[in-house]
Specification:
heterodimer; A: alpha/beta; Rossmann fold; six-stranded mixed sheet; 11 helices; globular; B: mainly alpha; ABC transporter involved in vitamin B12 uptake, BtuC; two-stranded antiparallel sheet; two-stranded antiparallel ribbon
Amino acid sequence: MMENDHILITEDLTINFGGLRAVDGVDFYIKKGEVVGLIGPNGSGKTTFFNLITGIYKPDQGRILFEGENTIGEKPYKITRRGIARTFQNGRLFADISALDNVIIGMYTKQKTNLLDTIFRYRRVKTELREGAKRAMELLAFFSKELKDNCLKIVADLPHADRKRVEICRALASNPKLLLLDEPTGGMSPEETEELMQDIRKIKEQNKNITIIIIEHDMSVIERVADRVYVFNYGKKIADGPFSVISKDTKVIEAYLGEETEDVET
Amino acid sequence: MFEIVLFIAVETLFFVFIYLFLILEKIYSILGILGGIILLSILINKIDKLNSFLKKCFSEYKTPAILYGIIFIIALPILLRNYPYQIFILFNAGLFALLALGLNWQIGSTNIVNFATGASFATGAYTSALLAIHMGWSFWILLPIGGLAAAGIGFILGLPCMKTKTYYLSLVTIAFTLIVYLLLNNLSWTGGPDGIADIPFPKIGNHSFGSPIRLFGWEIPFQANFYYLTVFLIALTFIVDRRLRYSRIGLAWNAIRNDEIAAECQGIDVTYSKVLSFSLNFFFDGIAGTLFAFCMSHISPESFTFNVSVTVVTIVIVGGMDNAVGVLFGALLMTLIPEKFQVFQNYRMLIFGFVILIMLRLRPKGLFPQTVRKYD
């Protein structure tokens, strides 16, 4: 199933936590430029799947191919340097520095200066940082004008929705080939969710080549954003295909409605 | 016009306080001055108008303020020309400022609570002392070599430290300081408990650092040589600090301080960044150690105990995490005050403990908290 336009492929991806098989033999692929939704009840292994792709966990078996190259065993920072950026479910921003600094740190892989430049040829560092700051401001302004005006505020002082936006900016700052969004609308009001969805679409319009995998609980978001959907349950992939097909799949309906697991919202 | 006059008056007052504090001997007069400083700072804090006025002045007249400060720093040994010991105390404060500025990259920027300052300080001092005595190398070559030797040790210590985090990392560094202290005490080639004596004074041209400076008919004690050199090195470290802070290295350190996993997901090699902060910190400690060895001309293991590490950590916590100016103030406070309260020498660690407790309770980010980076 190796094909040239498949930017990411996983085969038989499995990881165990003690006796629990968190991700269980998942075959997955995504084409360049595609937006794929990842849905499933809580605890079905979606975030663990992200952690496997980004190298935070090492799988017990299976393969991960990014642009045709095996990434298993690589440290997360190396995988990021290949062009994978992500956001986190509960938000993992650098809380005690400004929003602008956060986005500039997102450009780390694109920046070139080293220790010697910093101490002896500071001008290079200065131009690099200025350009970075300029681009970071553009990114923040892309999401909201207000966010740009507040860019020198400490992240911990920003409202929840803005923090989520800053995190997406930070991920976008590295110009990733593959963007992993882990519940970007979590904890947002319906209006904010709507806004963010528009923003994600805008990102897609601006950069046709970017590939996005998005974990989301809000089905209306998935329906409108995702080209294809994967459904996880108990670590297994139980269905995949366009949303219109998936939403009629009996296994999927069973996973969401037929069992009690849905009450375990956190 | 009125503003600048008042502003200069405030700064002058501050300098007069420092000067008086240095030369007074009687404990009551010292207490009086300390009380005065505390009262003044409370007053400034309480009266909002005065506070905002001073802040405004400081931002508006930043350059003259700094210039005035520099003139004072240069003039201080001339004012103190009859008090050689006081100049030595200032030199000592400068040394601790150097150590603390380096440690700030660890505790302040990266959140690595490193207690190995004693060890790195010793590495620099012993390396350059031994090379000066046995090989006859000059101080000016040994200054960077002492730094490099310490940086090497920092690199070697840094690698195993990366396997540990938070408290465990601190424990490793404490153990390292103790090991170095014991080694220095028990090895024969380091002179054992007697240490190394007769380290020659550095020279510039014909001027030996062991002889007084003669200027306009004044005779400034020889300690001033080292004082000026330390001030110069602190200025250099300040520049390095600022450049590091405004670079991807400093940003990466701040990222690691907040969240290592998220930092790694931005493409930051966490291990490399941490080892780099270890090595840089140790490099500057090594330079400070060399300076110390050549100023004292005699070193022994007693100068490199765990107490040194604790003092420097206290300076960073009191002064301000990730703020070089704060660290400088912290160094002045934590070296000058204990020096003046020799009576309580035995309770020094106790007092430091109290100070840390109070600071963490009232101002957990230090006297001068970190500032937000601006990019224009």
